[in-house]
Amino acid sequence: MRAHRAEVQERRDRKGPYRSLVLDAPALAGAARPGQFVMVRVSETTDPLLRRPFSLFRADGPAGTAEILFRISGRGTSMLDRVQSGDTIDLVGPLGRPFPSLPGQEIVLVGGGVGLPPLFFYAESLRRLEPARNIHVLMGGRTKGDLVAWEEFERLGIDVQPATDDGSAGHAGVVTDLLQPFLGPSRAILACGPTPMLRAVSEMAARSNTPCWVSVEERMACGLGVCMGCAVPVRSDHGPSYRLACTDGPVFEAREVLW
Amino acid sequence: MPDPSELQGLAGPAGLAGLDVDFAGVRLKNPVLVASGTFGYGSELSQEVDLNALGGVITKGISLRPRPGNPPPRIVETPSGMLNAIGLQNVGLEAFLNEKLPYLRRFDTRVIVNIFGESVDEYRAVAAGLAGVGGVDALEVNVSCPNVKAGGIEFGTDVIQLKSLVSALKGSTDKPLIVKLSPNVGRIADFARAAEDAGADGISLINTVIGMSIDPRTRRPRLANGTGGLSGPAIRPIAVRMVWEAARAVKIPVLGMGGILTADDAIEFILAGASAVAVGTATFVNPRAAPDLVEGLRRFVARENLPHISRLVGGVITGNA
Lengths: 259, 321
Fold this sequence. Notes:
The complex is a heterodimer. Chain A is an alpha/beta fold. Chain A is built from 5 helices and 15 strands. Chain A folds into 2 domains: 3-95, Translation factors (Elongation Factor Tu (Ef-tu), domain 3, Beta Barrel); 106-215, Nucleotide-binding domain of ferredoxin-NADP reductase (FNR) module (Rossmann fold). Chain A has helices spanning 26-31, 75-80, 116-129, 150-155, 195-207, and strands at residues 3-13, 18-24, 37-41, 52-60, 65-71, 88-95, 106-112, 135-141, 159-164, 171-172, 187-192, 212-215, 231-236, 239-244, 251-253. In chain A, the strands form 3 sheets. A 7-stranded mixed beta sheet of chain A has the order 10-9-8-7-11-12-15, with helices on both faces. An 8-stranded parallel β-barrel of chain B has the order 3-4-7-8-9-10-13-14, surrounded by 6 helices. Chain B has a 4-stranded antiparallel beta sheet with strand order 5-6-12-11, with no helix packed on it.
């Protein structure tokens, strides 16, 4: 059963328009893997009608808690922002295919904005399993405030390479400007963020034979594979076709996606 | 020896006495189905829904060969609804028979296969491929998909073409034929009658209402297809009106759908003349919408002291009180 009602244990105001909610959701927390997402009902009424997908930022099985981190960017997320500690929210998850476990590889995480939470979940889980594994995170955004979870990444002892469009933190430019030194077949890239960024990362990975997985963002109605709304163009044995971001993804091997 | 599903309908473990219906020659344990294109091929929601609880499953539209569907974006949310232009992405007849139908056959529920073609010949080929196939209880003829270039809605918005398609299909199958009508017509009663005259065993309505949404900043349609089909509670009043008009025009049973979320919504359709109802977009919001509706209808029947839900069919009171 993937449908849950979860109490909001804590609401965390983060930088700028970013918020996170810590949820008391033992079944979800126990089952969730990095890269998976939940569909959250933001209203009890019919407007807005559809649930909103959010990547998991954290899941702590023993504590029974899961956390989602989101950016207030529209009506749905504004409504979710009104949720207070003690409130109950209705969610379905964990959904989708997680990031792969990559034994032995040096891990390079590339993301920006709300693409960072699932990468953090991956980093934190991997740190717990293998404290010695080399993990780098390349994070980009328009401005410093978009570099979410920077402190959390540093607390894990992970090397953080920032880039901002306005130069307010780290390299002034896009995150892929920083990627070149991290390419190579002994490394593996996991990326999540806007499509132009994912496309650029995929191309660089392909040219350098760096294994690469991307977590894509698509509009979806159900998250369960029945509405078929979240089509992702992919290569297949019989030419171009579509796969579903919700059940075939959201994580795809980068070389599979037709950008 | 009575049919076991009939026994369950009378006094099943879920106590569903008073909800079993006969629809177009298909015995349903309750009048709740899941609408085509909103429940995949039945296995996707196995964690949330026990298919044995449903009157029936109407599959995603099946064409002769697999269809990739339309490019994204395929959906956009609208007030109390959504627009979709999926473009009938489906696995095709052969994969449906080999990979999808065996799963559905494991359940004590009715399976209605929604069929689609770009031409009369393709519709006939799909119907012929399903003729005599065990576990397929009826066919729903999709003449109302607004999101494909050829076929579909062109048959559903022209009375002459609709008649000739349904007549042709009657000769290609032994299964009951349910014709799914488009709301994108002026007089729905004419289309209901045309389906009945051509030999349809039942009609279902409404499919989605053609709509459009434009992004003011990019000045482009929000759907890659340009237009799409509107579904959800936003279309419910249109659907109830059309079911009412269609049901009065024909003797064959009507399957009503369009924005049903709750038992009260379903009762509206039944009072308007529907013998059974289908849950569509609601499943996207609540994966358990259909089984919850069965439970809601059971409670409604009990609360109203009705011997059977069929007592309500067409029971809307339109004169002065």
